[in-house]
Amino acid sequence: MAGTIVIKNGYVFDPLNEIKGEIMDIFVQDGKVVTGLSAAELKTGTFIDAFGKTVMPGGVDSHSHVAGSKVNAGRVMRPEDHYKATIQKTSLLHSGSGYTVPSVYKQGYDYAAMGYTTVFEAAIPPLEARHTHEEMRATPILDMGGYLELGNNFFVMRYLREGDIWRAAAYVSWMMKTHKTYGVKCVNPAGVENWGWGKNVSSLDEANIHFEITPREIIKGLSEINECLGMPMPLHLHANNLGHPGCYTIAKESLKIPDVIKPRQNMEVEWAEIKMNPAKNRSVYLAHLMFNSFAGTTWADLESGVKELAGYINNKDHVVIDSGCVPFGEATTMTGDGPAIHDIYTLTGNKWSNKDVEMECGSGVLPFTYLKSNPVHSVQWAMGLECLLLINDPWKTIMTTDSPNGGPFTKYPEVMTWLMSEAYRKQTLSECHKWANDRSEIGGVRRELSLYDLAILTRANPARTIGMAHRKGSLGVGADGDITIYNINPQQLDPNNYEALLRTFRKVEYTIKGGEIVVAKGEVVSIPEKRTYYSEVHVEDEKEKEMLADVKEWFRYYTLGFANYQTPKKYLANPTPIQVNGKR
Amino acid sequence: MVFKNIVCPACGAACDDIQVELGDGTIETKNACKIGNVKFKEIVSSHRLRQPLINKGGRLIPVPWDEALEKATYILTSAKRPLLFLGSEISCEAHEAGLHIGEYLGAVVDSNTSIYHGPTVMGVQEAGKVGATEGQKKNRCDLIVYWGTNPLESIPRQMSRYEVFPRGYWTKRGRFDRIIITLDPRKTLTTEASDFHVQLTPNSDYELISALLTLLHGKIPHPSVEEITGVPISAMEELLYMMKNCNFGFISIGLGLSSSIGKHRNAEIVMNFVKEINKFTKFALGVIHAHCNVAGFNQVASYMYGYPFGLDFTRGYPRFNPGEFTTVDMLREKDVDAALVVCSDLISNLPADCATYLAEIPLICLDIVPCPTTVISDIVLPGVIDAMECDGTFYRQDDVPVYFEPFTGSPFEFTKSNEDTLRQLFAKIRKTK
Amino acid sequence: MEVLLITGSTIEEGRLAKGGDKFKAEYTKECAACWIATVDFVTLCSPEKVKVTSKNGKHSVVVYAKCTDSVRPGNVFMPKAIWTNVVVDPDTLSTGSPLYKGAPVKIEPTEERVLSAEDIVLKVYVRGQ
Amino acid sequence: MTEVILIPKRNVDIKLEADIINPDSFAGKSAEEIGNLPIWQGPRTYPLCEFFEVKVNGGSSEAETIIRIKGDASRVKRIGEGMSAGKIEIEGSAGMHLGTGMKGGEIFVSGDTDSWPAMEMIGGLLHIKGNAGDHVGCAYRGKWHGMKGGRIVIEGSARHQVGGGMDGGEIFVEGNVEGFCGIRQTGGLIIVKGRALRGVGAEMTAGTIVIGGKIERFSPGFEYMGIEEGLTLGGVELKGKFKKFIGDYAISTRAKGVLYVAVDTNTEL
């Protein structure tokens, strides 16, 4: 029977259920985890002997750039990223190309081959949402969703400026439905609008041109709206001043803004059985902490500011972060923060693409190579790991490379191994520019993450953070039958043998999605159906009506008509709405 | 019946405000331009291709749909190296279907970009493109540079909808809030509508932009540039002064830039110029597409396989190398031996040597009306008109995706859309090979 | 006379092409045309028709000559259509795109007939079939 | 020492891709084994012996393999791609991508080559008696780094984009070049004895270019530095006086590319 499988005798790591490597059997029926299977079902279902192996929920990436106009801008402008990184078509698989910005088929297979089953695109420009959904629809295997960029949106800025938080909330809810997106993204609030004039903002209290709204007001407003509406996930914040020496101060100040806001998750879903309380408990989800943690005043006296930020986060409970690690090598920087990419252009002179999106947001793309011999890049490598090692509670951290900004997601095995093995960190440190050691804490960090910690950072916490723990990130009864099996025997795990760790993380033994084997020994063997999640957020009809009247009036400043603005469901693979803030 | 907010499938502007009144055998439009208007008329035109045809002894003879598809399948599966040319007046969904066929057959898949704006895209690959959606121009732009393009004749509503005349948020007076500069070796309707016309010598775009960049970097360009371009350095300085002192400048580039000698290097250098001038003021760049969904193929092919046009699948994975895997070059070099041409009058757009070879090899053509290409085709499949008879996606010239819904259905029983036709063809190919 | 050929869209060409009227006399009249600067036009003795020949002399096409002040002497303009493509150089300089702008060609007055689009295909491209 | 002789059997219609015609893949193989190596025509592979008669002379030493192609290979692409040692001699012309990415060894062509010879070359020697197409020793599309080392000698002329993105190595062209010779060069040396059309050294930031003939359209971003005489570059003694320019300031204010232009043929510069 499809979607029915039993995994016997594996060492199971399921942090949401506080299972720490116990030998257990996992049963999946019709794509969902169940308590057991009847003899008849066992006979027809698939059987996997996982004895001596590590079993975890399928990997969840809560912050990656895999679909949409800026990702594709990266593909279009980088044939040199593609010509040597190719995959051949087979009777089952499509062909593809691309290393840091792979084509959709390739990226779907590559993610699955590393044990990931769920990936969220972290920045969707509303006007380009159709494009993003087209690409997510075409990406095989992975369950997906994405966050809508709202931090420099004309309507949001206007309503917040006018203090009309409810109209802003009605707008946000309408936008989520209109573009079938999942969460709220805020990129360089107030600054990207200034980039429309070639400028930026440099402090939290600097009002932008014309709209005269400050980053602080936008962060406060959007995080309030987010919790008023009971969104599944906290505001995904890309703080101002990113990537500049000294930017950690603004990041810290930004994190303080939502401290007073109480997290509230109001979604109608069926929860899998989970031992921990999986409800949202953070009011801000800071994106790629590494890029926001530069201390110093210039590139010459640059140092890591992660310690400072980690200290703050260690003492507070309203923050969760993803790291944005730098695994060295080729990358393609891409972000909705247009002026930040312009700044990297002025530093490097590399190829640079930019796209401002009318009334809404912007983006920039620039190829980048991180070198061990480069002092700044070396510090960035150290900082990325510090983000995950200096913050004590793993439930406050998520492992990412902000793919492909710090490096492509295919480098996750390296990052996982650095986290688990001090020896591997030492080895890399010895190959790096000395700044990595001198200007960060990484050389003195003894902490080595356990497999349990790793399961938190790569599955349980991303799922919990974005409000997907009702079906992802755990192996509780009722959860999706998404499972990764690594060829690691936790009893014999030796962090000093990092080569072995790298090998196993690169090529999982099995990836199972919805109870079907998708990957066996690193090879994709089936392409099951996939889903796209989005938040169907509700507000009172009257409020929505009133808001829409105003929105329609302002639509004359768009170049696309109101009637043609929305993203129809046909752009989504198995559209799966999550009812938020009540049901109609 | 009256339908509103219909998307026009004529050019890259992808206007989405067309009003259509469909009667019994008649159609009237509002808001459409001269070119768009005739495109809508196709739906009721007497010359529309209404059945599959097959060439027998120099004459096109009607055949049943299935027979036409079988013959097309035979041509494509028995060729050593077929070329699939997917035109721009079809949806992205049709492009996707065509790309899947190409991948399966190990064929070469190409599109209009290859012949026209290919060098522009190659310029993007060398330099990156600092761009913006059309609305940024409408709302903010106070300086427009048309470089080697004549939008008043190729995209008639470009100026009124997006760039020059619309009253935007910070450009409340429309045309009066903007300076228009056009660079063109020729006087055109656009140069006449501009405030300044720089009539440079043909093929000297690279040197002119290179000189502007040199000036921007605080150096005096080599004096020979005046004779090469026909533009005095003092005029270049004035041009640069205007550019540096605007609030939001925009360069719209056309084929005049990237199709003259220098090709992708012309596109590259103008993109470099826009990158550099952003150190002084806000500037962006966009492309003028005279054909509808040119941008769409680039986007779809890039996300599916990693390259924007001229994709070669012969070795089981996508490869890209203009000059090697592009339509004009492959036909000139006789390096393909059969072709499927979808909604593009390819033969009218090819140099003679290529056209002659295309006429020699087995050719399947899908189109809505008879054209020079149908004349030499072995098989002609009737086309469905996207945005009128079926739904789908176009990408506007600024790469914004536009979803279109039809106001009527396919006139054929045997196919719902060009996408459907290509999928049917694919199914037959899979059965054969 | 050797000149640089610039090709491009004209609105009428666009209207006729998108309207599916490539076989109409009107289309031939609009597109089988070569716009010549006044000085050059006079030098050629104000011909009614000119024969345009590609750089290598391999291909030529007869079109109606038109006098204009929109191009500089030494340059000619032809609407983008099948006639102009007969003489466009198929060399793409390894870019895929032929030289539509600024290709050197030869023009001379002629009494030969202007072919229709269909005849270009049948008589020029499908020779001997 | 092994000598492998390939004799074309027939005219080729659809072009072939024969990256296996390469000393690295022929070394130590018998004539039969070589004849069975796959070459591509369209999406299918055929044994090499379908298109070439294969003869092997001498022992089976793997150290040195010489491949002689006796006849026209102008529709055969990718000969010698990535080769690291040995020698290929083509008694005729060669198709695209001849010696692409070659790391060592030698290729000698008595006829012409199509475009992309020695793309992104790392080492070795490519010697072309006739003319070459576009992109000699050039970087791949979108890449700013091309040839890193090795030597290309062209006795005839080359076309556009010679040495694009060149980081190191040497290119000598006896004849003429067209547009954008040495575009985006960051190192290495290009010497052209004949004339150049335009865009010489465009966007270069380092490296050296010498043009012996007339440059029809000079790149505007180069600054005149003075006249030099008695130049010896890349082991070649250059007769006559040269004007020295530095650039390309169009691409960077810190550019350090050196462009030497013969005085005699470029009096007006």
Task: Give the structure's gist in a few sentences.
The complex is a heterotetramer of chains A (584), B (433), C (129) and D (269). Chain B has 433 residues and is α/β, with parallel strands linked by helices. Chain B has helices at residues 34-41, 65-78, 92-105, 112-115, 118-127, 134-140, 151-154, 158-163, 189-192, 205-216, 224-229, 233-244, 255-258, 264-277, 294-305, 327-332, 352-360, 372-375, 418-432, and strands spanning 2-6, 18-22, 27-30, 53-56, 59-62, 82-86, 108-111, 130-132, 143-147, 179-183, 196-198, 248-253, 282-287, 311-312, 319-320, 338-342, 363-367, 379-382, 392-395, 401-404.
Give structural notes.
- The complex is a heterotetramer of chains A (584), B (433), C (129) and D (269).
- The mean pLDDT of chain A is 97.
- In chain A, helix 6 (154-161) runs antiparallel to helix 7.
- The longest helix of chain A has 15 residues, at 165-179.
- In chain A, the strands form 6 sheets. In chain A, strands 1, 2, 3, 4, 5, 22, 23, 24 and 25 form a 9-stranded mixed β-sheet that branches. An 8-stranded parallel β-sheet of chain A has the order 6-9-10-11-12-14-17-21, sandwiched between helices.
- Chain A folds into 2 domains: 5-56 and 478-524, Urease, subunit C, domain 1 (Roll), CATH 2.30.40.10; 57-465, TIM Barrel, CATH 3.20.20.
- Chain A has 584 residues and is of the alpha/beta class.
- Chain A is built from 19 helices and 27 strands.
- Chain A is 32% helix and 22% strand.
- Chain B is of the alpha/beta class and 433 residues long.
- Chain B folds into 2 domains: 49-114 and 293-432, 3-Layer(aba) Sandwich (Rossmann fold), CATH 3.40.50; 118-287, Dimethylsulfoxide Reductase, domain 2, CATH 3.40.228.
- Chain B has a 9-stranded mixed β-sheet with strand order 5-4-18-17-16-6-7-14-15. Chain B has a 5-stranded parallel β-sheet with strand order 11-10-9-12-13. In chain B, strands 1-2-3 form a 3-stranded antiparallel β-sheet, with helices on one face.
- In chain B, helix 17 (352-360) links the parallel strand 16 and strand 17.
- In chain B, helix 10 packs parallel to helix 14.
- The model of chain B has no long low-confidence stretch (mean pLDDT 96).
- Chain C has 5 helices and 6 strands.
- Chain C has a 6-stranded mixed beta barrel.
- The longest helix of chain C is centred in the last third of the chain and has 9 residues, at 117-125.
- The radius of gyration of chain C is 14 Å and the shape is globular.
- With 269 residues, chain D is mainly β.
- Chain D has a domain at 115-262.
- Chain D contains 2 helices and 20 strands.
- Chain D has helices at residues 23-26, 31-35, and strands spanning 2-8, 16-17, 38-41, 44-47, 52-58, 65-69, 76-77, 87-90, 106-109, 125-128, 151-154, 170-173, 177-179, 186-192, 196-198, 206-211, 215-217, 223-233, 236-247, 257-262.
- In chain D, the strands form 3 sheets. A 13-stranded mixed β-sheet of chain D has the order 5-1-6-8-9-10-11-12-14-16-20-19-18. In chain D, strands 4-3-2-7 form a 4-stranded mixed β-sheet, with no helix packed on it. Chain D has a 3-stranded parallel β-sheet with strand order 13-15-17, with no helix packed on it.
- In chain D, a hairpin with a 2-residue loop joins strand 3 (38-41) and strand 4.
- The longest helix of chain D is centred in the first third of the chain and has 5 residues, at 31-35.
- The termini of chain D are far apart.
- Chains in contact: A-B, A-D, B-C, B-D, C-D.
- At the A-B interface, helix 2, strand 7, strand 8, helix 4 and helix 5 of A face helix 3, helix 5, strand 8, helix 6 and strand 13 of B.
